[in-house]
Amino acid sequence: MATARAMIERRRASRVLIRIPVQVFSDGTQGQGLDTPAEAIAVSRFGALLRAPLSPALGSRIEVLNGMSQETEEFRVVRVRDANDGIYELGIEILYPARNFWGVHFPDECCPA
After folding, report:
1. Which of 14, 15, 71, 89 could form a disulfide with 81 if both were Cys (CB 3.0 to 4.6 A apart)?
2. pTM for this structure?
3. At 56, phi and psi to the nearest 5?
4. Exposed/middle/buried for 56, CB within 10 Å: 0-12, 13-18, 19+?
5. Domain spanning 21-94: which superfamily?
């Protein structure tokens, strides 16, 4: 098992604990599209941890609508964990990190001079 320090050192960017309402869109199984409300509970410039009532396959692509900014981005599912009562924790990685999708100031960002 990796130590907490080793896991932190592997991260590309810091995380911020926050609650952001999101909508998750997925192709789903058997071609049936999914559209479900969820919540981002931790975010970084490169991804997030979501709590959602769906369990997509690892590696699948989902679209996430940020409920605060109404912007949508595409993500890859990198972790799925059964939290409880039909709610899953999804680790997701943004596919095109061109801007600050979450609209949050991250602690490791350098301030403009």
Report:
1. 89
2. 0.81
3. -70, 160
4. buried
5. predicted glycosyltransferase like domains (2.40.10.220)
Which residues have CB under 8 Å from 24's CB, separation 6+?
Answer: 34, 35, 36, 37, 38, 50, 52, 54, 62, 63, 64, 65
Domains of the chain: which residue ranges? 21-94
